[in-house]
Amino acid sequence: MTTEHPIDVPTLTQQLRKAMRHGVRATRLATHAPHLVDLLTPSHTGSPDDRAIAAEQIIRDATEPLGPNVGAAMRIMLGLEPGTWHTGIEDRRKRAAKRIGITPGAFRRPRREGTYLHDIAWEIWQQRRKAA
Q: SS3 for 126?
């Protein structure tokens, strides 16, 4: 079902945080985060799987402006990088922290992980505004 949902940065950030536990590959979004798929693909038609694929791409694209290190770290956290698809969140956090040269504990702090998720949500929100 593709109903129009209002989209805002705090809601997107919250939904990304929830989805992060399982990862945001299309298969995981379809299973564990259908509300996020609805938020990201309100005007898309097609099957739920097609919409989950589109949602994954939207998230991937939103990590690019974070730059090569932070963007890659967040793709690791979100389970988008090869080799991270079936790993637990703590292992992904270790890999992401290593990518930017900090400890996993420092990475997990809100000013890092939380800020980066917020930045991804902001980018998605901006792209949606441009398309409207």
A: helix
Q: Three-state SS string across 14-58, please?
A: HHHHHHHCCCCCHHHHHHHCHHHHHHHCCCCCCCHHHHHHHHHHH
Helix axes 89-100, 68-77, angle to 10 degrees: 170
| Predicted TM-score (pTM) of this structure | 0.92
Tokens for 125, please give them. 């929100």
Cα–Cα distance between 128 and 8 in angstroms, integer? 10
* pLDDT single digits (tens) 62-103: 999 999 999 999 999 999 999 998 999 999 999 999 999 999
Number of CB atoms found within 10 A of residue 10's CB: 10
Count CB neighbours of 60 within 10 A: 16
